[in-house]
Known about the structure:
By secondary structure, the chain is α+β, with helices and mostly antiparallel strands. Helices cover 30% and strands 18% of the residues. Strands 1, 2, 3, 4, 5, 6, 7, 8 and 9 form a 9-stranded antiparallel beta sheet that branches. A 7-stranded mixed beta sheet has the order 13-12-11-14-10-15-18, with helices on both faces.
Amino acid sequence: MDTDTDTDTATDTDTDTDTDTDMDTAMDTDTAMDTDMAMDTDTATDTAMDTAMDTDTAMDTDMAMDTAMDTAMDTDMDTDMAMDTDMAMDTDTATDTAMDTDTDMAMDTAMDTAxxxxxxAESFVRAGMVPPAEAELxxxxxxxxxxxxxxxxxxxLTFSGKCRLTCLYGAVRVLGxxxxxxxxxxxxxxxxxxxxxxxxxxxxxxxxxxxxxxxxCGLRAAMRLRGVARQARLRVMARFSARCAVVLLEHLDxxxxxxxxxxxxxxxxxxAQRSQQPGCTPEDxxxxxxxxxxxxxxxxxxxxxxxxxxxxxxxxxCTVEDEGAPVIMVCGPKNVGKSTxxxxxxxxxxxxxxxxxxxxxxIGQTEFTPPGCVSLTNVTEPFLGPPxxxxxxxxxxxxxxxxxxxxxxxxxxxxxxxxxxxxxxxxPLVINTMGWVKGEGLLLLTDMIRLxxxxxxVQMDVxxxxxxxxxxxxxxxxxxxxxxxxxQQPKCKQMDASGAEDWKTSEGERDAAAPDYKLLYIHPExxxxxxxxxxxxxxxxxxxxxxxxxxxxxxxxxxxxxxPLHSLVPYQVPFNAVALGVIHTDVAPTxxxxxxxxxxxxxxxxPDTVRSQSDGPVLLTQTPLCxxxxxxxxxxxDMERKLYYVLTPVAPEKLRLVNCMLLGSIAVPNCVFxxxxxxxxxxxxxxxxxxxxxxxxxxLKKKHFKRREHTFPCDFT
Length: 717
């Protein structure tokens, strides 16, 4: 195509007869323009508006582009129709760097004209004059295990599966975190046990024309580098616009997920149930090759209006320069979405801040550690998946040893106080609390609010507040706690008109002494919100997944296959090198070795030096308040050599600090014993002939061997 006959024909005020005829075809027949008439500027504008607003001729899947815009786009995407033989592209050559100056100018002019037409047409959609068309996905296959996906402005893809995401152009949002081209690739985990993740193209202002041309060339080069075929690249560029987003999706395989998927119980953890309806598109096949499956948007995160408003206010409070960092406490009953809200909030804050502190006080459903822990974690990277995909070592952690604190809430309160003392108030703090909000649980929550002194309290509950009354600062001021006392209401004597005495609270005293925090209400609107027993997956299964995710760190990073845990070499720990304690119950010293064998233990450090008069085990008489450095499985006890055999992913430099092992009620998941590959014959530690009359065995029998199976509906499309 010559430079003087490029795509300016779409807007030229003095076009020839053939171009006028083409423009008349796109216009409504009532216009009846004379083909020899020279269109002035107003006539050209009216023609463009008629072209954009006529849904029968100009509103297609390419966002209401007319024939002139398609011709301009063809200049860039099809060399047979829009480029002279002097500038024909060779698939095997780097055409973007070999084109001569005239050809480059013609191509850029054509693309600029096409982009201008597209923006002009989309302006009618944004103004509400034309309903938006349902855009289909543009996904093309690249090298093995990767694909390129283009999302139109504000288009979203809800999916199940796992993949690695790298943004090539524009920006996308995943669970609140914005991913741009300058950022490293992000690992996305969307299993069936949690709400599905969604990729959403963020509305970003279009770059200047020169910068857009450079980014466009870089996008084409990036697709060639990832092995995207020429025809596939042309399909992507045909849908390209200045406001779109283009991402690279790659197959993801981590040691933790490899270990989880090797167990039969969790083999289909990331596999969606395909719909029986025919109609699988080529784009669906491309996404499936990466490891993800498109699912219904209802499976994704549903943000209510109250949640949107609360998130906006909290982000504003954390990003404004002010004295002191905000402390945000999130509370509410079970199954209202507290953990999901915390993930979304922290990911949003990481768009503006280098780090966020996270205090985990929910010992039953922990975020970064196995269950039974109170921990303080410095979060510097987004976490785009459930807890079992991002197990990590917190800055401060105490192993409480149980999933509920009802039996020993005083020790729980002391543990929270101990961990919170490590908070330096240099970054915003998000506090997660338990779903126990009735009876003594509400009294304990009142104590927690007084102890932690939050600047914001986020209360999540269903609309009728049937689980708990609003936690206003006034109610917390006077309400009694489990271990703290509420203030008595000060009264002053007043005389009413009849002369009778009336006792009323002094307004000045109430305002001065009331707790200073902002209460934000959130009413979740997802299905089954706040209904006990209606969670997607039972909490015990989620706790097992967290432990398995932690044990997955034992798998070598560069090895494609899975090593059974019984094939790994454990550490040998002398009896007199560590103290041994049982947290949740009393065990006779003669039976403690039976209790610790094949058990989940916290590897801790107590301030006192461990001393033993003999080579026998050192037993603690009471549970210490100490730091936990990690966890392990005692896979054997050698009574002759006086050794514990401990399997743990804790680094050796940390293990040198360990001088205490604490045994709690958290048990090793059953699948570790019975479902690993390579076990033949009799399985160690597993028997069906056990005397359940032994003290302490009844609860284990009910919890682990007669567990009710929980199913959940899936509506994948």
